[in-house]
Amino acid sequence: MEITEKEIKHLASLSRLNFTDEELAKFSADFKAILDYVNELQKVDTSNVKDNTIIRAYDELREDEVKPSLSNEEIVGNAPKNYNGYFIAPTVVE
Amino acid sequence: MEYDVVIGLEVHSELKTKSKVFCSCKNEFGGEPNTHCCPVCIGLPGALPIPNKEAVKMTIKAGLAVGSQINDIAIFERKNYFYPDLAKAYQISQAVRPICIGGGVEIEDKNGHKKYIRLNRIHLEEDAGKLIHNSKIGGTMVDYNRGGVPLIEIVSEADMSSAEEAVAYLSKLRNILQYIEVSDCKMEQGSLRCDVNISLKPKGSEKLGVRAEMKNLNSFRSVTRAIEYEIKRQSRLLDEGEEVIQETRRWDDARNRSFSMRRKEDAQDYRYFPDPDLLPFKIERSLVEEVKRTMPKLREEKINDYVNDLGLSEYDASVLTNDLNLVKYFEKVISYFNKPKFVCNFILTTLLKKVKEDEENDDLVIPIEPQNFANLLQMYESGQISQAICRELFDEIWTTNEDCLKIVKERNLVQNNNEDEIKEMLKVLIEEFPQSVQDYKAGNTKALSFFIGQLMKKTQGKANAQIASKLIKEMLD
Ligand SMILES: [Zn+2]
After folding, report:
1. Average pLDDT of span B60-80
2. Predicted model pTM
3. What average pLDDT does the structure give for chain B?
């Protein structure tokens, strides 16, 4: 399966990533290898295999109970930048 | 050229569970920044989300209230987009198998014409964090307290054709969500907000036009204004033979116009896929039946009760039940002072006017304690205080919420119902204003109100106006 450099650039921009030409070439090759591998898997005949998706029962879900959160220091402390209890992120204008 | 307007709404409503949708952090508006957060809701690697039973139940409840089908298996998916309000760079949402499918609500216009607005689906997802852009510190401040709060998205079909219909639809949904107690629906706090899709096509044409999506609408007024603006903008483009571009636009309430956010070619590609952290889950029929049994009364039933059991008119009952907060207030007040018609009357004529004067937003806030309000009405109804005093006191306790019984006692505001005393005072006034007596005799009935006004002035509003009116007429005739 082919993936174009244009598609890779699009995916990169959706993730706010910037690739150099070398990186772009490398990712193109990597993507292709992964997709080829998946293609290979899809050749397996699974028509006789039972659907084994695990489905969770409602009772296994969580009760609506409040438990302690982490402290503000623990939450923002690992961030590269924080201020007055907030995370500071680069401004992304939409 | 004349156009048909085609409108669809996506309404987001925060569920009022105790905890968040995939973790046990507190679900509460506000709070110090990043204090209701844990590894799950700030998206630390390895943290595992587990769905909240109550959030699932509330979504089912919303679906049942609008006649949706409840899917027997629901799936959570990742909606991928990169923006700082999402800690994980994806939002857990539902695409192919939401909890509720279909349904609809009936709206009514001013003239009583009914229209059925179909729903496409209701799905459960997590709310995003809050961003505050701060140029001074050269970045964006991020607070994830709201991140992970359960949110339902109610998607309508494009069945509406005017701003009026969109507002009617939105207020109907708000009313239902309030009544079934799944959301506070406070537009001011963003617990109810909506996106509007809108397109135009030549009148009668079958082919749909190109649509624009308007984001960031969080009041009824901005929904109306944004739709009206967009109809004008698109019809101008079409009139001039230009194309409407498929795009997302952001409504700016302050500037009363919308701005293009992104075009179709830059459109987000959300790359939905089933969240491997969250297995599909089963919704048993027994659960749906259980939710059905706990369904509270909706507005229509309330109106019936008020008409049949309390003797209110259909119209009064309908105004009173428009907002569940008012319903709760009314029911508290009549639990202290059981004269429903009298209470309802005062609410509709005086209290609601006051609410409208006071409030710029769409959320109903009544600052007077129900018990205090009940005491006030009881004093008025029993003749202990005059109407004038009642009005004055109402205005006063609206701002202070001081005990009105105490005020009446301290300032001695008790109404004078003594016929002899009132007669004496009127006698003095008749002597004082002979001209008005002549006016009355010449057929000017306004002279009567002049005497009542003078009497009220003399007594600081404490004379019983009804008794005085009766007496002055007898005395002058
Ligand atoms: Zn959390």
Report:
1. 97
2. 0.83
3. 92
Count the domains in chain A.
Answer: 1
Q: Return the CATH fold of B419-476.
A: Arc Repressor Mutant, subunit A (1.10.10)
Q: Which long-range contacts (CB under 8 A, 24 or more apart) does B39-43 make?
A: B39/A70, B40/B148, B41/B87, B41/B126, B41/B144, B41/B147, B41/B148, B42/A75, B42/B87, B42/B144, B42/B147, B43/B86, B43/B87, B43/B88, B43/B89
* Residue B131: predicted pLDDT: 94
Quick check: B19 and A69 CB within 8 A?
no
Domain-embedded: residue A23:
yes
pLDDT of residue A93: 67
Averaged pLDDT for residues B319-343: 94
Q: What is the enclosing helix (H) or strand (E) of B77?
A: strand B77-80
In this structure, of B46-55, B108-117, B152-161, the range with the lowest mean pLDDT score is B108-117
Taking the Cβ of residue A10 and every Cβ of chain B, the question of whether any pair is shorter than 8 Å is answered with yes
For A14, the domain range is 5-42
pLDDT per position as a tens digit, B165-195: 999 999 999 999 999 999 999 888 889 999 9
Q: What is the DSSP string of B347-382?
A: IIIIIHHHHHHH-SSSS----S-HHHHHHHHHHHHT
What are the residue boundaries of the structural domains of chain B, listed by start? 3-289, 419-476
What is the residue whose two structure tokens read 């009298």? B342
User: B102 by DSSP, 3-state: which?
Assistant: coil
Q: Determine the distance separating the centroid of ligand 1 and the alpha carbon of B182, expressed in angstroms.
A: 20
Q: What is the ipTM of this complex?
A: 0.89
Indicate which CATH number applies to the domain containing A15. Answer: 1.10.20
Residues with a beta carbon under 5 angstroms from ion ligand 1: B 23, 25, 38, 40-41
